[in-house]
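Notes, p. 3: input format for complexes.
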Amino acid sequence: MLLYDTLRQTPVAMEPIDGFVRMYVCGVTPYDTTHMGHARTYVVYDTIRRYLEWQGLPVLYVQNVTDIDDDILRKSAQLGLTWDELGRQETERFLRDMDALNVRMPNHYVKATDAIAKIIEVNSGLIERGVAYENQGNVYFNVHADPNFGSLAHSDYASMLAIANERGNFPDDPHKRDPLDFVLWQATKPGEPWWDSPWGRGRPGWHIECTAMVLEYLGPQINIHGGGSDLQFPHHACELAQAENFTGQSPHVAAWSHIGMVYYEGEKMSKSLGNLVLASKTLQHYSADAIRLGLLKYYYRDQFEYSDDDVAWGERTVERFKQAVNSGVAGGALHAEELRNEAIAALDADFQTPACLQALITLAEASINGEIDDAELAATTLRELGTVLGLRSELW
Ligand SMILES: [Zn+2]
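Output follows (396 residues plus zinc ion):
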């Protein structure tokens, strides 16, 4: 299977490293419920995992939970909950939504607060290697110490700084040497939770959390590091810099992989704008199979405007698949094997789910209408690839 690498801007082959295709996907910050943007990201990687496994490649899949950060502290204070209570509740809610969407659990699902020891180890290593510095209990990555910093952004310093500032950077932090330097550890403020460290009491920065978990559970070199396209910069660019400077090994990741944003009412679906379609709400009206197909209808790197029409289309499509499996008849000249190969080839070529679904729909319709040469192969294919797409085709 080939998957697009945002760094080299070309599709790359997924070759197992020490027996596994190693995949890390940035997880949620548990302070609000699962919207369709989240659902899309985790459905896509769940499906990529299922496809690789179906091809006989074992996958080792790790995902984090950012259970401590500014948003959690702000929201828990608003709600009158402790930060860890809010995190626990919202993580449970997220996992229920994932389960309802037939998204399987990663092999390791790790909270940031359970990775503090590794975070401290990596931060200490970065200071020793001269690419990070401490200032009054805070630790920062020095972006000028790494000539490759920001390679994943494919843009210049001024544009990077502008994007970073939109996405949570504090350019005026007086403890930093450069406005683009990013935080690896921050000193505790009154009333905040803290952990002991060589730099005093504090809590980890966001980017270092993922790097620590990748290194702890997957190793210095992995196949896929995924997330929404809004993570490409600064989050993933910072992760790349941290990991490669700490391990001295490159490339850290074969495919930096990014999922297009989901739009709603003309804007990116986001907690801050409040234009959310929640997975749990949609599940009250449509099946998980329908939602998965509605999301997989679009090529994963493209953005799209969410509409219930896509999910309704998913529902009708699943019904046709079922009908073809249960009452398809042979009798025509269309080759089931060719359509099966087409569907598989589409997934091999950078996970082109729209082309895959198109081949499966042609197969199902031909089988229902008695225009296929082998109705049994059509049924097997729809069931098998249905399972790969995460449909509950075992129930058909
Ligand atoms: Zn991450």
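The longest strand covers residues 59-65.
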